[in-house]
Amino acid sequence: MNSDSTHHEHDQQSADQHATEHGAAAGGHHESEPIEGGRVFTHLMEELGDHHELNIFFGHFDILPVILVDDGLHVYPNVAAMEAAGAYTLQHPDAHHKLVSTTKKDAAGHPATPSLDLSITNLVAYQFIAIVLVLGLFAAIRGRYTREPGAAPKGRLANMLESVVLYIRDEIVAPNVGTIKRANGLMPFVMSLFFFILVLNLIGLLPGAHAATGALGVTAALALSTFLVVQYIAIRDAGIGAWFHHLLGGAPIFLAPIMVPIEIVSLFTKPFALMIRLFANMTAGHIVLLSLVGLIFFFKSWLVTPVSVSFSVFIYLLELLVAFLQAYIFAMLTSVFVGLALGDHAHEEHH
Amino acid sequence: MDAVAFAWLSAGLGVGVTVFGVGTGIGRLAAAALEASSRQPENAGDIRTTMIIGAALIEGVALLAGVICILLAVKS
After folding, report:
1. What percent of chain A has pLDDT over 70?
2. Which listed CATH number (3.30.497.10, 3.40.50.10490, 1.20.20.10, 3.10.450.40) goes with B3-74?
3. What is the structure's pLDDT at A99?
4. CB B45 within 8 A of CB B33
């Protein structure tokens, strides 16, 4: 039993070692101590997320600016320049979840972290790339629509995008908000959400890259914008008085002490669920892939490889489906919430 | 067993219970949608849309439970 457990520990250790090597390759130029067992998962989750390096496929590009707020603003063009300047070093993510540390020490003797790290990390860079891609795609087909409004689309790109746009309008937005006219008003927001999330999800499927939608901060921002849009439309459409009256949930006034807290909580649960759903869906696929590939290192045997790889390919294709499905669901639920907030058609009776 | 072992155990059991509940829920949802759309194939599109919304909502709860299980497992 004893030898068995040491063997197991050895395996774990080597898996950790591998993870560390990967981390060091991805994260910087530092020798880092191996992570203790049980931390490998959290460690990799951190590694999957923010880096100070742009990585796509096998390339790691140290081209992202580092912006630190620590007794004033410090801006460096990249990590190498930051380290050359001497005040800050890149450290391997430790228990503090920070990548950058100063030369100063905190009270416990650990390297202190800057008070605010606003760096353009890889996830931010992916979002910029997604914005450029989406704007570029639509700018490319814009000309014909402005010259000849109502004309049939011409060319592969225009046909493809128009079919998606019309699908979003006619099948996702219009049935939920009631009329095509209202749908046209909501389309810019829903379409931005759909294409932004879709492109981010697809970037996340590139080897080496990571889905920015698999970070809670990103999905929280998306859900927050949905929340603001829904509340804005609710107030604009029905007035602030009706909005407050809606907090009663249709119950008589003496039930207000019970109904108002419930309705206020339900205001926030919807965007919260949106946030968690997108984050967890995009992260879950990566975790499953990680576990399947991790089997090879766990068993230390070539024999596991065919199983591991074939299952990984299957999960990868499933992730491709999920990438589209989650963008669809986010857009769909956004328009459902707007429809509920409008509240002057069939949905009204339901609550 | 120490607290860490209990955390791992509860995370594993939690995932199992979650998957059981969600599998049952989405299974029933899909079965009902399938029945409905085979009875009225002309409404299959609407039924599918409604089914996807329902599945997404059920899945949202499941993922919430999953996140809690992950937190249990990694905070040990």
Report:
1. 77
2. 1.20.20.10
3. 56
4. no
